[in-house]
Amino acid sequence: MENNKDDIRSKMKEVRCCIIIPTYNNSKTIGKVISDAKEYCDDIYVVNDGSTDETHDIISNIEGINRIEYTPNGGKGVALKTGLNKAHDDGFRYAITIDSDGQHYTEDIPLFIDAIEKNPDAMIVGIRNIQQENMPSKNTFANKFSNFWFKTETGQSLSDTQCGYRLYPLDKVANKRYITSRYEFELEILVRSAWNDVKIIPQPIKVYYAPAEERVSHFKPLRDFTRISILNTIFVLIAFLWIKPRNFFRSFNKENFKKIIRYFSDTKDSNTKIASSVALGFFMGIVPIWGWQMAVALVVAKLLRLNHWIALICSNISIPPAIPFILFGSYATGGILLGNDALPQLGNVTFESIKTDLFQYIVGSIVFATICAAIGWIVSYGLLCIFKKKK
User: Fold this and answer.
1) Residues 164, 166, 168, 173: is their CA dihedral positive or negative?
2) pLDDT digits (tens, 9 = 90+) for 47-76
3) 319, 294 in Cβ contact below 8 A?
4) Is the peptide bond before 245 cis (omega within 30 degrees of 0)?
5) Phi, psi dihedrals of residue 299, rounded to the nearest 5°
6) Strand arrangement, sheet containing 94-97
7) 295 φ/ψ angles, rounded to the nearest 5 degrees
8) For the whole model, what pTM was predicted?
Protein backbone atom coordinates (compact mmCIF):
# COMPACT_ATOMS: atom_id res chain seq x y z
CA MET A 1 0.00 0.00 0.00
CA GLU A 2 2.85 2.36 0.85
CA ASN A 3 4.47 1.72 -2.51
CA ASN A 4 1.14 2.45 -4.18
CA LYS A 5 0.90 5.75 -2.32
CA ASP A 6 4.45 6.61 -3.37
CA ASP A 7 3.51 5.84 -6.97
CA ILE A 8 0.49 8.13 -6.74
CA ARG A 9 2.63 10.87 -5.18
CA SER A 10 5.04 10.59 -8.10
CA LYS A 11 2.20 10.59 -10.63
CA MET A 12 0.71 13.73 -9.07
CA LYS A 13 4.04 15.51 -9.48
CA GLU A 14 4.33 14.20 -13.02
CA VAL A 15 0.94 15.56 -14.10
CA ARG A 16 1.41 18.68 -11.91
CA CYS A 17 -1.60 18.07 -9.70
CA CYS A 18 -2.09 19.49 -6.22
CA ILE A 19 -4.81 19.17 -3.55
CA ILE A 20 -6.97 22.05 -2.32
CA ILE A 21 -8.86 21.78 0.96
CA PRO A 22 -11.28 24.66 1.66
CA THR A 23 -12.32 24.80 5.29
CA TYR A 24 -14.60 26.75 7.58
CA ASN A 25 -15.03 25.80 11.26
CA ASN A 26 -14.19 22.11 10.81
CA SER A 27 -11.58 21.93 13.55
CA LYS A 28 -12.66 18.41 14.57
CA THR A 29 -11.86 16.90 11.19
CA ILE A 30 -9.44 19.20 9.34
CA GLY A 31 -6.30 17.71 10.92
CA LYS A 32 -7.09 14.16 9.83
CA VAL A 33 -8.16 15.24 6.34
CA ILE A 34 -4.80 16.99 5.83
CA SER A 35 -2.88 14.04 7.29
CA ASP A 36 -4.64 11.58 4.97
CA ALA A 37 -4.12 13.83 1.94
CA LYS A 38 -0.37 14.13 2.66
CA GLU A 39 -0.03 10.38 2.18
CA TYR A 40 -0.80 10.88 -1.52
CA CYS A 41 0.42 14.37 -2.33
CA ASP A 42 3.23 16.73 -1.32
CA ASP A 43 1.51 19.86 -2.62
CA ILE A 44 -1.48 20.75 -0.49
CA TYR A 45 -3.28 24.09 -0.22
CA VAL A 46 -5.47 24.63 2.85
CA VAL A 47 -7.79 27.62 2.46
CA ASN A 48 -9.04 28.82 5.84
CA ASP A 49 -12.20 30.74 4.92
CA GLY A 50 -12.44 32.95 8.00
CA SER A 51 -12.86 30.16 10.57
CA THR A 52 -13.69 31.27 14.12
CA ASP A 53 -12.86 27.99 15.88
CA GLU A 54 -9.43 26.37 16.45
CA THR A 55 -8.76 25.81 12.73
CA HIS A 56 -5.99 28.44 12.55
CA ASP A 57 -4.07 26.90 15.48
CA ILE A 58 -4.41 23.38 14.05
CA ILE A 59 -3.18 24.11 10.54
CA SER A 60 -0.43 26.42 11.82
CA ASN A 61 1.18 23.41 13.49
CA ILE A 62 1.13 21.23 10.37
CA GLU A 63 4.30 21.37 8.31
CA GLY A 64 4.57 20.95 4.57
CA ILE A 65 1.31 22.62 3.54
CA ASN A 66 0.47 25.91 1.86
CA ARG A 67 -1.81 27.94 4.12
CA ILE A 68 -4.14 30.60 2.76
CA GLU A 69 -6.08 32.43 5.47
CA TYR A 70 -8.30 35.47 5.47
CA THR A 71 -11.25 37.03 7.28
CA PRO A 72 -14.17 37.37 7.29
CA ASN A 73 -15.80 34.22 5.96
CA GLY A 74 -16.55 34.65 2.26
CA GLY A 75 -18.22 31.34 1.42
CA LYS A 76 -17.10 28.07 -0.13
CA GLY A 77 -17.05 29.59 -3.60
CA VAL A 78 -14.59 32.27 -2.50
CA ALA A 79 -12.38 29.65 -0.85
CA LEU A 80 -12.37 27.46 -3.95
CA LYS A 81 -11.66 30.36 -6.32
CA THR A 82 -8.82 31.54 -4.07
CA GLY A 83 -7.26 28.07 -3.97
CA LEU A 84 -7.70 27.37 -7.69
CA ASN A 85 -6.22 30.72 -8.71
CA LYS A 86 -3.25 30.36 -6.36
CA ALA A 87 -2.49 26.81 -7.54
CA HIS A 88 -2.68 27.90 -11.18
CA ASP A 89 -0.39 30.88 -10.52
CA ASP A 90 2.08 28.49 -8.89
CA GLY A 91 2.28 26.43 -12.08
CA PHE A 92 -0.03 23.50 -11.38
CA ARG A 93 -2.06 22.02 -14.23
CA TYR A 94 -4.69 20.23 -12.12
CA ALA A 95 -6.14 20.50 -8.63
CA ILE A 96 -8.17 17.98 -6.64
CA THR A 97 -10.60 19.60 -4.20
CA ILE A 98 -11.53 17.75 -1.01
CA ASP A 99 -14.03 18.87 1.62
CA SER A 100 -12.65 19.32 5.13
CA ASP A 101 -15.55 17.68 6.98
CA GLY A 102 -14.21 14.13 6.57
CA GLN A 103 -16.80 12.98 4.03
CA HIS A 104 -14.29 12.15 1.31
CA TYR A 105 -11.90 9.22 1.31
CA THR A 106 -8.39 10.18 0.18
CA GLU A 107 -7.88 6.57 -0.96
CA ASP A 108 -10.05 7.55 -3.96
CA ILE A 109 -7.38 9.99 -5.17
CA PRO A 110 -5.77 7.35 -7.46
CA LEU A 111 -9.11 7.07 -9.28
CA PHE A 112 -8.96 10.74 -10.19
CA ILE A 113 -5.36 10.47 -11.38
CA ASP A 114 -6.15 7.44 -13.54
CA ALA A 115 -9.14 9.29 -15.02
CA ILE A 116 -7.17 12.43 -15.89
CA GLU A 117 -4.38 10.42 -17.50
CA LYS A 118 -6.99 8.92 -19.82
CA ASN A 119 -8.80 12.26 -20.34
CA PRO A 120 -6.29 15.14 -20.26
CA ASP A 121 -7.72 18.59 -19.42
CA ALA A 122 -11.12 17.14 -18.49
CA MET A 123 -13.00 17.89 -15.28
CA ILE A 124 -13.38 14.76 -13.15
CA VAL A 125 -16.47 14.96 -10.91
CA GLY A 126 -16.99 12.66 -7.94
CA ILE A 127 -20.27 10.73 -8.00
CA ARG A 128 -21.65 9.68 -4.63
CA ASN A 129 -24.14 6.94 -3.84
CA ILE A 130 -26.99 9.19 -2.72
CA GLN A 131 -29.00 6.22 -1.42
CA GLN A 132 -26.47 5.23 1.22
CA GLU A 133 -26.97 5.27 4.96
CA ASN A 134 -27.07 8.66 6.75
CA MET A 135 -27.35 10.63 3.49
CA PRO A 136 -29.38 13.74 4.50
CA SER A 137 -32.75 13.82 2.72
CA LYS A 138 -32.37 17.53 1.94
CA ASN A 139 -29.12 16.73 0.09
CA THR A 140 -30.85 14.06 -1.98
CA PHE A 141 -33.62 16.43 -3.06
CA ALA A 142 -31.27 19.33 -3.75
CA ASN A 143 -29.00 17.09 -5.80
CA LYS A 144 -31.83 15.74 -7.97
CA PHE A 145 -33.10 19.28 -8.44
CA SER A 146 -29.64 20.47 -9.48
CA ASN A 147 -29.08 17.48 -11.79
CA PHE A 148 -32.31 18.24 -13.66
CA TRP A 149 -31.40 21.86 -14.31
CA PHE A 150 -27.82 20.95 -15.24
CA LYS A 151 -29.15 18.72 -18.02
CA THR A 152 -31.59 21.44 -19.12
CA GLU A 153 -28.80 24.01 -19.29
CA THR A 154 -26.08 21.87 -20.88
CA GLY A 155 -27.79 18.88 -22.50
CA GLN A 156 -25.51 16.59 -20.48
CA SER A 157 -26.54 14.07 -17.83
CA LEU A 158 -24.69 13.92 -14.52
CA SER A 159 -26.01 12.03 -11.51
CA ASP A 160 -24.23 14.18 -8.89
CA THR A 161 -23.71 17.87 -9.63
CA GLN A 162 -23.10 18.90 -6.01
CA CYS A 163 -20.19 16.71 -4.92
CA GLY A 164 -17.18 18.76 -3.83
CA TYR A 165 -14.68 15.98 -4.56
CA ARG A 166 -13.43 16.96 -8.02
CA LEU A 167 -10.37 17.32 -10.20
CA TYR A 168 -10.23 20.66 -12.00
CA PRO A 169 -8.17 21.48 -15.12
CA LEU A 170 -6.72 24.78 -13.94
CA ASP A 171 -5.99 26.26 -17.37
CA LYS A 172 -9.72 25.92 -18.13
CA VAL A 173 -11.24 27.21 -14.88
CA ALA A 174 -8.80 29.38 -12.91
CA ASN A 175 -8.55 33.18 -12.96
CA LYS A 176 -11.92 33.70 -14.61
CA ARG A 177 -14.83 35.89 -13.56
CA TYR A 178 -17.53 34.04 -11.67
CA ILE A 179 -20.72 35.55 -10.26
CA THR A 180 -21.23 33.31 -7.21
CA SER A 181 -19.42 32.98 -3.89
CA ARG A 182 -21.00 30.19 -1.85
CA TYR A 183 -22.23 26.63 -2.41
CA GLU A 184 -23.75 27.51 -5.76
CA PHE A 185 -20.25 28.18 -7.13
CA GLU A 186 -19.71 24.45 -7.67
CA LEU A 187 -22.76 24.41 -9.95
CA GLU A 188 -21.69 27.58 -11.77
CA ILE A 189 -18.19 26.32 -12.56
CA LEU A 190 -19.64 22.99 -13.70
CA VAL A 191 -22.21 24.53 -16.07
CA ARG A 192 -19.83 27.13 -17.49
CA SER A 193 -17.14 24.50 -18.05
CA ALA A 194 -19.65 22.40 -20.00
CA TRP A 195 -20.58 25.48 -22.07
CA ASN A 196 -16.87 26.04 -22.79
CA ASP A 197 -16.51 22.47 -24.11
CA VAL A 198 -14.58 21.12 -21.13
CA LYS A 199 -15.12 17.37 -21.07
CA ILE A 200 -16.84 16.31 -17.83
CA ILE A 201 -16.07 12.79 -16.60
CA PRO A 202 -18.08 11.19 -13.75
CA GLN A 203 -16.05 9.20 -11.23
CA PRO A 204 -17.82 7.02 -8.63
CA ILE A 205 -16.43 7.58 -5.14
CA LYS A 206 -17.08 6.51 -1.58
CA VAL A 207 -18.43 8.99 0.91
CA TYR A 208 -18.91 9.00 4.68
CA TYR A 209 -21.86 10.70 6.33
CA ALA A 210 -21.63 10.95 10.09
CA PRO A 211 -24.80 10.39 12.13
CA ALA A 212 -26.99 13.50 12.34
CA GLU A 213 -25.96 14.28 15.92
CA GLU A 214 -22.27 14.37 14.93
CA ARG A 215 -22.58 16.12 11.60
CA VAL A 216 -21.30 19.68 11.04
CA SER A 217 -22.88 21.41 8.05
CA HIS A 218 -22.80 25.04 6.99
CA PHE A 219 -25.42 24.53 4.28
CA LYS A 220 -28.45 26.72 5.04
CA PRO A 221 -31.36 25.16 3.09
CA LEU A 222 -33.54 28.27 2.62
CA ARG A 223 -30.76 30.71 1.80
CA ASP A 224 -28.59 28.40 -0.30
CA PHE A 225 -31.47 26.72 -2.11
CA THR A 226 -32.80 30.17 -3.05
CA ARG A 227 -29.39 31.23 -4.37
CA ILE A 228 -29.10 28.01 -6.41
CA SER A 229 -32.61 28.53 -7.82
CA ILE A 230 -31.81 32.10 -8.88
CA LEU A 231 -28.59 30.91 -10.51
CA ASN A 232 -30.46 28.19 -12.41
CA THR A 233 -33.02 30.72 -13.62
CA ILE A 234 -30.24 32.91 -15.03
CA PHE A 235 -28.48 29.92 -16.59
CA VAL A 236 -31.64 28.60 -18.26
CA LEU A 237 -32.18 31.99 -19.92
CA ILE A 238 -28.56 32.12 -21.07
CA ALA A 239 -28.75 28.53 -22.31
CA PHE A 240 -31.83 29.09 -24.46
CA LEU A 241 -31.04 32.60 -25.66
CA TRP A 242 -27.32 32.13 -26.34
CA ILE A 243 -25.73 28.70 -25.75
CA LYS A 244 -28.20 26.46 -27.61
CA PRO A 245 -28.43 28.74 -30.70
CA ARG A 246 -24.62 29.09 -30.62
CA ASN A 247 -24.14 25.33 -30.51
CA PHE A 248 -26.74 24.84 -33.21
CA PHE A 249 -24.94 27.13 -35.63
CA ARG A 250 -21.51 25.83 -34.63
CA SER A 251 -22.63 22.52 -36.10
CA PHE A 252 -23.02 24.26 -39.45
CA ASN A 253 -19.64 23.50 -40.88
CA LYS A 254 -19.11 23.66 -44.62
CA GLU A 255 -20.14 20.05 -45.20
CA ASN A 256 -23.27 20.30 -43.03
CA PHE A 257 -24.27 23.53 -44.75
CA LYS A 258 -24.04 21.78 -48.11
CA LYS A 259 -26.23 18.98 -46.76
CA ILE A 260 -28.89 21.48 -45.69
CA ILE A 261 -28.84 23.18 -49.10
CA ARG A 262 -29.17 19.79 -50.79
CA TYR A 263 -32.03 18.91 -48.45
CA PHE A 264 -33.90 22.08 -49.45
CA SER A 265 -33.35 21.48 -53.15
CA ASP A 266 -33.86 17.70 -53.21
CA THR A 267 -36.83 17.30 -50.90
CA LYS A 268 -40.01 16.03 -52.56
CA ASP A 269 -42.11 18.61 -50.71
CA SER A 270 -43.74 21.26 -52.87
CA ASN A 271 -42.29 24.75 -53.06
CA THR A 272 -45.36 26.06 -51.26
CA LYS A 273 -44.90 23.60 -48.39
CA ILE A 274 -41.21 24.41 -48.01
CA ALA A 275 -41.81 28.18 -48.13
CA SER A 276 -44.59 27.82 -45.54
CA SER A 277 -42.21 25.85 -43.28
CA VAL A 278 -39.64 28.62 -43.58
CA ALA A 279 -42.27 31.24 -42.74
CA LEU A 280 -43.45 29.26 -39.70
CA GLY A 281 -39.88 28.96 -38.43
CA PHE A 282 -39.24 32.69 -38.82
CA PHE A 283 -42.50 33.53 -37.05
CA MET A 284 -41.81 31.22 -34.09
CA GLY A 285 -38.23 32.48 -33.82
CA ILE A 286 -39.35 36.09 -33.39
CA VAL A 287 -42.50 35.98 -31.26
CA PRO A 288 -41.77 36.35 -27.52
CA ILE A 289 -41.81 32.70 -26.43
CA TRP A 290 -38.20 32.78 -25.28
CA GLY A 291 -36.62 29.37 -24.88
CA TRP A 292 -39.54 27.56 -26.51
CA GLN A 293 -39.18 28.68 -30.15
CA MET A 294 -37.77 25.40 -31.42
CA ALA A 295 -40.16 23.18 -29.46
CA VAL A 296 -43.27 25.14 -30.49
CA ALA A 297 -42.12 25.34 -34.12
CA LEU A 298 -41.66 21.57 -34.18
CA VAL A 299 -45.11 20.86 -32.72
CA VAL A 300 -46.98 23.37 -34.91
CA ALA A 301 -45.18 22.16 -38.05
CA LYS A 302 -46.29 18.59 -37.33
CA LEU A 303 -49.87 19.71 -36.68
CA LEU A 304 -49.97 21.68 -39.95
CA ARG A 305 -48.18 18.86 -41.79
CA LEU A 306 -45.33 21.11 -42.83
CA ASN A 307 -41.67 20.17 -43.04
CA HIS A 308 -40.79 20.18 -39.35
CA TRP A 309 -37.00 20.04 -39.95
CA ILE A 310 -37.04 23.19 -42.06
CA ALA A 311 -39.30 24.94 -39.53
CA LEU A 312 -36.92 23.88 -36.73
CA ILE A 313 -33.87 25.24 -38.55
CA CYS A 314 -35.53 28.56 -39.41
CA SER A 315 -36.83 29.05 -35.85
CA ASN A 316 -33.21 29.74 -34.90
CA ILE A 317 -33.40 33.10 -36.62
CA SER A 318 -33.10 34.67 -33.14
CA ILE A 319 -29.38 33.95 -32.90
CA PRO A 320 -27.32 36.30 -30.68
CA PRO A 321 -26.09 38.68 -33.48
CA ALA A 322 -29.67 39.15 -34.69
CA ILE A 323 -31.32 39.59 -31.28
CA PRO A 324 -30.77 43.40 -31.01
CA PHE A 325 -32.32 43.92 -34.45
CA ILE A 326 -35.26 41.66 -33.61
CA LEU A 327 -35.86 43.47 -30.31
CA PHE A 328 -35.65 46.90 -31.96
CA GLY A 329 -37.83 45.84 -34.90
CA SER A 330 -40.47 44.43 -32.57
CA TYR A 331 -40.55 47.45 -30.26
CA ALA A 332 -40.49 49.96 -33.12
CA THR A 333 -43.30 48.13 -34.93
CA GLY A 334 -45.35 48.24 -31.74
CA GLY A 335 -44.65 51.97 -31.48
CA ILE A 336 -45.94 52.57 -35.01
CA LEU A 337 -49.11 50.55 -34.34
CA LEU A 338 -49.82 52.18 -30.97
CA GLY A 339 -48.63 55.68 -31.81
CA ASN A 340 -45.75 55.55 -29.30
CA ASP A 341 -42.03 56.23 -29.51
CA ALA A 342 -39.82 53.78 -31.42
CA LEU A 343 -37.46 53.50 -28.42
CA PRO A 344 -38.31 53.11 -24.71
CA GLN A 345 -37.87 56.21 -22.59
CA LEU A 346 -35.42 55.26 -19.83
CA GLY A 347 -35.26 58.61 -18.11
CA ASN A 348 -38.34 58.04 -15.95
CA VAL A 349 -38.95 54.34 -15.40
CA THR A 350 -42.11 53.48 -13.47
CA PHE A 351 -44.23 50.38 -13.06
CA GLU A 352 -46.76 51.84 -15.48
CA SER A 353 -44.08 52.66 -18.08
CA ILE A 354 -42.74 49.11 -17.84
CA LYS A 355 -46.23 47.69 -18.48
CA THR A 356 -46.70 50.04 -21.43
CA ASP A 357 -43.32 49.16 -22.95
CA LEU A 358 -43.90 45.44 -22.47
CA PHE A 359 -47.34 45.61 -24.12
CA GLN A 360 -45.88 47.61 -27.00
CA TYR A 361 -43.10 45.05 -27.45
CA ILE A 362 -45.45 42.03 -27.39
CA VAL A 363 -47.88 43.58 -29.89
CA GLY A 364 -45.02 44.73 -32.10
CA SER A 365 -43.22 41.38 -31.98
CA ILE A 366 -46.29 39.49 -33.22
CA VAL A 367 -46.76 41.88 -36.15
CA PHE A 368 -43.01 42.06 -36.85
CA ALA A 369 -42.82 38.27 -36.80
CA THR A 370 -45.71 38.11 -39.29
CA ILE A 371 -43.96 40.56 -41.61
CA CYS A 372 -40.67 38.64 -41.45
CA ALA A 373 -42.51 35.36 -42.02
CA ALA A 374 -44.20 36.80 -45.11
CA ILE A 375 -40.89 38.07 -46.47
CA GLY A 376 -39.32 34.69 -45.73
CA TRP A 377 -42.12 32.93 -47.61
CA ILE A 378 -41.80 35.18 -50.67
CA VAL A 379 -38.00 35.01 -50.85
CA SER A 380 -37.75 31.26 -50.25
CA TYR A 381 -40.55 30.50 -52.72
CA GLY A 382 -38.88 32.64 -55.38
CA LEU A 383 -35.48 31.00 -54.84
CA LEU A 384 -37.02 27.52 -54.93
CA CYS A 385 -38.77 28.28 -58.21
CA ILE A 386 -35.44 29.31 -59.69
CA PHE A 387 -33.02 26.76 -58.24
CA LYS A 388 -34.93 23.68 -57.12
CA LYS A 389 -34.29 20.68 -59.32
CA LYS A 390 -37.19 19.56 -61.47
CA LYS A 391 -38.36 16.07 -60.57
Assistant:
1) negative
2) 999 999 999 999 999 999 999 999 999 999
3) no
4) no
5) -65, -50
6) 66-70, 44-49, 17-23, 94-97, 166-169, 123-127, 200-204
7) -65, -45
8) 0.70
